[in-house]
Amino acid sequence: MAEIYISTDVETDGPIPGPHSMLSFGSAAYTPGKELVGTFSANLETLEGASAHPRTAEWWQTQPEAWAACRANLEPPDAAMHRYVAWIKALRGKPVFVAYPAGFDFLFVYWYLMRFVGESPFSHSALDMKTYAMAVLKRGYRDSTKKNMPKQWFDPLPHTHVALDDAIEQGALFCNMLRHNCAEPSPASEAR
């Protein structure tokens, strides 16, 4: 069974789950050949007893459209996370969580999965796009930012801070990185 890359973006009201809430998340499932085979998104009710971090709340005031989008059609986290696991399990392929940065997005998704479902279809792993870019570009980690990535890696897709939009955009970027990396001859094949 081939891998399927689940590009995921989260919108939150603070830096860590528990004291703060995941407000919204979106996932876009891509095949290695860049076929978008499915999407998932949910806007979540905030966690009981949690509150917004002041700096994050201040940032949200600069994003009124994205804020309105992530506060529409709210559902309980328990229901959303169960729907999410069922969606992932229905996909044809071994799921790989992909994010930019994975350290932030996976933190929230994994915490919510374990808290509300008790399992993670991704196990304990996530693929960080910036780390992958570091390996492909053969640069230092801090130099492997989007502004230093080749322009041909980027599709003309918006970055709106609406979770599903950003997951689709980042998934296309990852597939372009994957294609670039797989197109280059490996050192072993060059030695032949």
Features:
7 helices; nuclease; 192 residues; single chain; exonuclease; Nucleotidyltransferase, domain 5; alpha/beta; Exonuclease; 6 strands
Tell me what you see in this structure.
The chain is α/β, with parallel strands linked by helices and 192 residues long. It has a single domain (3-191), classed as Nucleotidyltransferase, domain 5 (2-Layer Sandwich), CATH 3.30.420. Helix content is 41%, strand content 20%. The chain is built from seven helices and six strands; from the N terminus they run βββααβαβαβααα. The protein has helices at 54-60, 64-70, 77-90, 102-116, 129-137, 163-183, 187-191, and strands at residues 3-12, 22-30, 36-44, 74-75, 94-99, 127-128. A six-stranded mixed beta sheet has the order 4-3-2-1-5-6. α4 (102-116) links the parallel β5 (94-99) and β6 (127-128). α3 packs across α4 (102-116). The longest helix has 21 residues, at 163-183. GO terms for molecular function: exonuclease activity; nucleic acid binding. This is Exonuclease. Keywords: Exonuclease, Hydrolase, Nuclease.
